[in-house]
Amino acid sequence: MIYYNPKLKLLARELRNNATEAEKRLWNRIRRKQLKRTQFYRQRVIGNYIVDFYCPKAKIIIELDGEQHFTPQGKIKDRKRDSYLNELGFQVLRFSNLEVMNNIEGVLQVIWNHL
């Protein structure tokens, strides 16, 4: 069983209800086991983090990065977060929002290759 911070549960629900355009676009292509019949979940709490997309079967986490992730502080936070998730045995795949919006097929191919 993976530890999760129950205090983040409401925030995760709020994030699901207020998804970015990139998150909506990717979700429409990976939900309902559309990729290799593999289940994905959105905005899941893992530890003290909320991950954008989570596939328990393949132990993959997909993160979509907006502008704040490309600042020096954002990069430091992402490295710390990725390190924690990697220690739990997850592989973190990161894509920019622009990648998803401009090249969804390429993003899906990368995800497919990791499943």
SSE topology sketch:
Elements (H helix, E strand, L loop, with lengths): L8 H9 L3 H10 L10 E6 L2 E7 L4 E6 L6 H16 L3 E6 H6 L1 H11 L1
Parallel strand pairs: 3-4
Antiparallel strand pairs: 1-2, 2-3
What would you note in describing this structure?
This protein has one domain: Endonuclease, Chain A, CATH 3.40.960.10. The chain is built from five helices and four strands. The protein has helices at 9-17, 21-30, 72-87, 97-102, 104-114, and strands at 41-46, 49-55, 60-65, 91-96. Strands 1-2-3-4 form a four-stranded mixed β-sheet, sandwiched between helices. A hairpin with a 4-residue loop joins strand 2 and strand 3 (60-65). The longest helix is centred in the C-terminal third of the chain and has 16 residues, at 72-87. The protein is globular. It starts with 8 loop residues before the first helix and ends with a helix. This is DUF559 domain-containing protein.
CATH architecture classification name: 3-Layer(aba) Sandwich
The strand order across the widest sheet is 1-2-3-4
Q: Looking at the structure, what is the overall shape?
A: globular
Order of helices and strands: HHEEEHEHH
Taking Cα atoms only, what radius of gyration do you get, to the nearest Å? 13 Å
CATH topology: Endonuclease, Chain A
CATH class: Alpha Beta
Tell me the name of the CATH homologous superfamily.
Answer: VSR Endonuclease
Low-confidence stretches: none
Q: Summary?
A:
This protein is 45% helix and 22% strand.
Keywords, please?
single chain, 5 helices, 4 strands, globular, DUF559, DUF559 domain-containing protein, Endonuclease_DUF559_bact
